[in-house]
């Protein structure tokens, strides 16, 4: 099966599974895969297809049907001005709150801006009139496409109805061939969920709560930006679930919180024995690939999303999305939780042994010890690259602190200024853990005028002379260009930078000296020099030790 046919087949099928009963089609060439998929669905009695030769008339026909029924109607057209002729109806749908799924076929990127026939800029064509607009992307014959396509359509269907009905826009680029080629094979099953939509969106209504299926084999995952954390951590604890919280999820406390889930979920034998029946996620997880793999394999993945206009689903595995959920208390054997906790303790002890066996300053030990040494009521702002990942792998559960990171876009820009702003708004002691590139990227944040408030903030800078995270990625194998375009050493004297801004400076000489280096008041800089290659070796040793300890436990 060619990619264009596969995408169109899945897209139409998922719309039907979501509940679409009517679709309006205007004819065209580039939209041929969608037209044929809709025709096949009509022949099978699954949809009422309406064909109009005038796109403007077609769009207003769909508008009328959706306005009367209250159910989204799909509008489908080819590329170019055909899509532009939908615009008046899209504007009316936006202003009057009518749900529409606007699907515009498009040329692939290599044909854009080349003078290719019937090609215009269709990206976000309808501007603010669309509740949501996205590029579907050129379809490819590779695993993972089906989950992406179905999740995308489910999201579009949900956003067209909640929180306020309106139009959404999917721009689908197709390469030729545009008609079926007679080959029905594809690299993965094209089927969806037999029970309906890939992701079911539970709209907020007064008193509506999604009741999580009762089970002892559940897991609570907490990521960045989570809300109502204490409530759901308490509920998960009552249900006997382990809590897998990223540091900035601020749920890594109590007896159910784990330290080493990153390592546990990288062990195939452990994963096979600990498959959850339900995973509930709060906030946006994304630090650990093994954790994301857990979400991908979950039988039931429920996402708590107070704002149904946006919800995090990085691996396209959400089965249900709701603004409020209830985790029921289930009595019974606590072997599930005990198994997770015993494995976590074994892995954490093995990792601690590796870290404590190195007297020199190391990045993961610095992260672990910094959190442990912070007084109660403290704030820690951490960079979104390696520092937050080090915390995720080694931070022991503790109460009484707040951890923040700029994980919205996960960039390194503005982190000195952001940490200073957070410290000025915080009522207790404040700390920041930044890499050298993040620190240098925003060193102007240290410029504070004589009449402005200065924060009580210790900025701990891990200086490994470049982009340390790349030493842990496949790019590290590219010995020739690595240092030049990934490592990017800078040779900047951080003590001189501190002196230029009149900021007290201290260098951390040994791991055990951290509490002394952290001491003080006001804005100050602590530099911790490390070696990128040694750090990569240390991370490999941590992983090896943790995996060995867990395998021995279950041998």
UniProtKB/TrEMBL annotation:
<dbReference type="GO" id="GO:0000287">
    <property type="term" value="F:magnesium ion binding"/>
</dbReference>
<comment type="pathway">
    <text>Quinol/quinone metabolism; 1,4-dihydroxy-2-naphthoate biosynthesis; 1,4-dihydroxy-2-naphthoate from chorismate: step 2/7.</text>
</comment>
<keyword id="KW-0474">Menaquinone biosynthesis</keyword>
<dbReference type="InterPro" id="IPR011766">
    <property type="entry name" value="TPP_enzyme_TPP-bd"/>
</dbReference>
<dbReference type="Pfam" id="PF02776">
    <property type="entry name" value="TPP_enzyme_N"/>
</dbReference>
<dbReference type="GO" id="GO:0030145">
    <property type="term" value="F:manganese ion binding"/>
</dbReference>
<dbReference type="InterPro" id="IPR004433">
    <property type="entry name" value="MenaQ_synth_MenD"/>
</dbReference>
<keyword id="KW-0808">Transferase</keyword>
<protein>
    <recommendedName>
        <fullName>2-succinyl-5-enolpyruvyl-6-hydroxy-3-cyclohexene-1-carboxylate synthase</fullName>
        <ecNumber>2.2.1.9</ecNumber>
    </recommendedName>
</protein>
<comment type="function">
    <text>Catalyzes the thiamine diphosphate-dependent decarboxylation of 2-oxoglutarate and the subsequent addition of the resulting succinic semialdehyde-thiamine pyrophosphate anion to isochorismate to yield 2-succinyl-5-enolpyruvyl-6-hydroxy-3-cyclohexene-1-carboxylate (SEPHCHC).</text>
</comment>
<keyword id="KW-0464">Manganese</keyword>
<feature type="domain" description="Thiamine pyrophosphate enzyme TPP-binding">
    <location>
        <begin position="394"/>
        <end position="518"/>
    </location>
</feature>
<keyword id="KW-0479">Metal-binding</keyword>
<keyword id="KW-0786">Thiamine pyrophosphate</keyword>
<dbReference type="GO" id="GO:0009234">
    <property type="term" value="P:menaquinone biosynthetic process"/>
</dbReference>
<comment type="pathway">
    <text>Quinol/quinone metabolism; menaquinone biosynthesis.</text>
</comment>
<comment type="similarity">
    <text>Belongs to the TPP enzyme family. MenD subfamily.</text>
</comment>
<dbReference type="GO" id="GO:0030976">
    <property type="term" value="F:thiamine pyrophosphate binding"/>
</dbReference>
<keyword id="KW-0460">Magnesium</keyword>
<dbReference type="Pfam" id="PF02775">
    <property type="entry name" value="TPP_enzyme_C"/>
</dbReference>
<dbReference type="InterPro" id="IPR012001">
    <property type="entry name" value="Thiamin_PyroP_enz_TPP-bd_dom"/>
</dbReference>
<dbReference type="InterPro" id="IPR029061">
    <property type="entry name" value="THDP-binding"/>
</dbReference>
<dbReference type="GO" id="GO:0070204">
    <property type="term" value="F:2-succinyl-5-enolpyruvyl-6-hydroxy-3-cyclohexene-1-carboxylic-acid synthase activity"/>
</dbReference>
<feature type="domain" description="Thiamine pyrophosphate enzyme N-terminal TPP-binding">
    <location>
        <begin position="7"/>
        <end position="124"/>
    </location>
</feature>
<comment type="subunit">
    <text>Homodimer.</text>
</comment>
């Amino acid at each position: 099966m060619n990619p264009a046919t596969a995408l169109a087949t899945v897209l139409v099928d998922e719309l039907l599974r979501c509940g679409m009963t009517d679709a309006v089609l205007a004819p065209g060439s580039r939209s041929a895969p969608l037209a044929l998929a809709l025709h096949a669905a009509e022949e099978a009695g699954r949809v009422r297809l309406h064909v109009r030769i005038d796109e403007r008339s077609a769009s207003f026909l769909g508008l009328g049907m959706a306005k009367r029924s209250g159910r989204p109607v799909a509008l489908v057209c080819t590329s170019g001005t055909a899509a532009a002729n939908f615009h008046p109806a899209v504007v009316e749908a936006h202003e009057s709150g009518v749900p529409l799924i606007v699907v515009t076929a498009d040329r692939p990127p290599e044909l854009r801006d080349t003078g290719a026939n019937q090609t215009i800029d269709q990206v976000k064509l309808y501007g603010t009139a669309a509740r949501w607009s996205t590029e579907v992307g050129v379809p490819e014959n590779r695993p993972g496409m089906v989950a992406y396509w179905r999740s995308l359509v489910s999201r579009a269907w949900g956003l067209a109805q909640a929180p306020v009905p309106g139009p959404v826009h999917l721009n689908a680029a197709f390469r030729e061939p545009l008609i079926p080629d007679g080959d029905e094979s594809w690299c993965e099953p094209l089927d969806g969920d037999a029970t309906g939509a890939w992701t079911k969106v539970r709209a907020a209504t007064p008193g509506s709560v999604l009741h999580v299926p009762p089970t002892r084999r559940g897991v609570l995952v907490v990521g960045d930006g989570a809300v109502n954390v204490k409530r759901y951590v308490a509920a998960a604890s009552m249900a006997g679930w382990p809590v897998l919280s990223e540091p900035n999820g601020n749920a890594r406390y109590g007896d159910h919180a784990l330290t080493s889930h990153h390592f546990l979920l990288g062990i195939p034998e452990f994963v096979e024995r600990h498959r959850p029946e339900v995973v509930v996620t709060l906030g946006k997880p994304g630090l650990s690939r093994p954790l994301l793999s857990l979400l991908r394999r979950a039988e039931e993945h429920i996402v708590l999303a107070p704002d149904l206009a946006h919800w995090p689903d990085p691996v396209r595995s959400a089965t249900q999305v709701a603004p409020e959920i209830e985790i029921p208390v289930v009595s019974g054997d606590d072997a599930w939780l005990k198994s997770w906790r015993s494995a976590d303790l074994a892995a954490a002890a093995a990792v601690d042994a590796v870290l404590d066996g190195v007297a020199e300053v190391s990045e993961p030990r610095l992260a672990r010890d910094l959190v442990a040494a912070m007084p109660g009521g403290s704030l820690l702002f951490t960079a979104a690259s390696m520092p937050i990942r080090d915390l995720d792998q080694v931070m022991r559960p503790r109460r009484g602190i707040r951890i923040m990171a700029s994980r919205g876009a996960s960039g390194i820009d503005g982190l000195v200024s952001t940490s200073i702003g957070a410290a000025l708004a915080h009522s207790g002691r404040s700390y920041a853990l930044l890499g050298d590139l993040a620190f240098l990227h925003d060193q102007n944040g240290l410029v504070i005028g004589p009449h402005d408030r200065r924060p009580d903030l210790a900025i701990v800078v891990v200086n490994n002379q470049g982009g340390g995270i790349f030493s842990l990625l496949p790019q590290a194998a590219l010995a020739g260009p690595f240092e030049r375009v990934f490592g990017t050493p800078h040779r900047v004297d951080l003590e001189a930078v501190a002196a230029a801004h009149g900021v007290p400076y201290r260098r951390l000489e040994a791991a055990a000296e951290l509490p002394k280096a952290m001491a003080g008041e006001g804005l100050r800089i602590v530099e911790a020099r490390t070696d990128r290659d040694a750090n990569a070796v240390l991370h490999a040793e941590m992983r090896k030790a943790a995996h060995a300890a867990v395998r021995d436990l279950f041998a």
